[in-house]
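Sync notes, pocket subgroup
Present: LS, DG
LS reminded everyone that the earlier model was apo-only. Rerun requested with S-adenosylmethionine included. Inputs:
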Amino acid sequence: MNMLTRLEKTLYRLEAQHACLHWAFEQIAERDGIVFEIGLGLGRTFNHMRHHLGEREIYAFERVINAYPDCMPDDEHLILGEIVETLPAASARFAGQVLLGHSDVGSFDKDNNRMMAGLISKHLPPALAPGAIVMSDLPLAMPGCTALALPPGAREDRYYLYRNDGI
Ligand SMILES: C[S@@+](CC[C@H](N)C(=O)[O-])C[C@H]1O[C@@H](n2cnc3c(N)ncnc32)[C@H](O)[C@@H]1O
């Protein structure tokens, strides 16, 4: 039987997030640029980025504040509201400046996932710097971006990686 249990899905998702984040940190280490964390949630991945990315600016998108108090961005770096509204505006404001985009907005609702993947695929690319890395819990179809193999430690289809080769 090849079906993953809920526990395995969660375990492999977190494992893939961790491996992809560390791979991405290395990729962007020598370059200037900001980070978009799309889906702050409990703030676990934001906190991990904050810990490893020093002074680099990280803007976090969320509609409902539910993060651990020590995993919250300051007011200037919290972009509060529905992504359908906030992401196009932020992508226009930071056009070409995002070196790492992390999208983690999936759920167990397949229709919602399709809709969210479409929103991110459409509205994130204008923000991306040349060579920017995008990691996502949902498969994306972003013009100008190339799908990349996952790094060691991440299991196939548990996360998705892209590089902006379009500009
Ligand atoms: C899986 S959680 C993110 C977990 C986070 N990466 C962490 O490590 O704690 C997804 C988050 O995306 C947010 N989200 C989902 N759809 C959204 C939308 N349309 N607009 C804004 N936020 C959204 C949810 O409120 C939720 O907190």
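DG: The mean pLDDT is 96.
LS: Residues 39, 41-45, 61-64, 66, 82-83, 104-105 surround S-adenosylmethionine (CB under 6 Å).
Action: DG to write up.
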